[in-house]
Amino acid sequence: MVCPPSCHPVNLYPSDGVATRVTASPSRYCPAPDLSFDGLLLAGGDYEAVLGRMRPDVAETVTAEDLQSLVLRQTDGAGVYKEIDSVMATGQSSNGEDYGVAVVYCKYSKKNVLFRLAFDTSYELIGLEVRKP
């Protein structure tokens, strides 16, 4: 299946031609993952699901409780989750490994929260950061 160009506004991995859509309103026909989905899982408190989306070597170094602790600590005082404000993505390389980074800005009732999510070329989660910008 080939997606229309409008489905992929950002080429996440330009070196190998794999593109991904980074919009918060995914097309149901698009085979590429919606990278903002993991931000929604974190904001919604589904830490087991986030752990399940991690690459195995990364997942063995963290627990769902670790993720919960991080999110609760970093969103303290932000209020109640409201919606995704914006999403952007870029491709990077470090130590010979290509990876993509999605930055998901979420609106909360009192403050905004940034979720930075790193994915390998198979779209497995390999890192994350949560903070108030």
Structural overview:
The protein has 133 residues and is α+β, with helices and mostly antiparallel strands. It has one domain: Nuclear Transport Factor 2, Chain: A (Roll). It has four helices and six strands. The strands form two sheets. Strands 3-4-5-6 form a four-stranded antiparallel β-sheet. The protein has a two-stranded antiparallel ribbon with strand order 1-2. The N terminus is likely disordered.
Give a topology summary.
Layout: E1 10-13, E2 18-20, H1 36-44, H2 47-52, H3 56-59, H4 64-75, E3 81-94, E4 97-108, E5 112-120, E6 125-131
Antiparallel strand pairs: 1-2, 3-4, 4-5, 5-6
Query: Span between N and C termini?
Result: 38 Å
Strand content: 35-45%
Overall body shape = globular
**Domain unit count:** 1
What about the largest sheet?
4 strands, antiparallel
> How are the strands ordered across the major sheet?
3-4-5-6
**Average of the residue pLDDT scores:** 75
- Structural class comes to alpha+beta
The low-confidence parts are 1-32
> How many extended strands?
6
Secondary-structure element order, N to C: EEHHHHEEEE
Indicate the percent of residues in helices: 10-25%
Radius of gyration: 15 Å
Number of helices: 4
Provide the CATH topology: Nuclear Transport Factor 2, Chain: A
Reading off the top of the CATH hierarchy, the class is best stated as Alpha Beta
Provide the CATH architecture: Roll
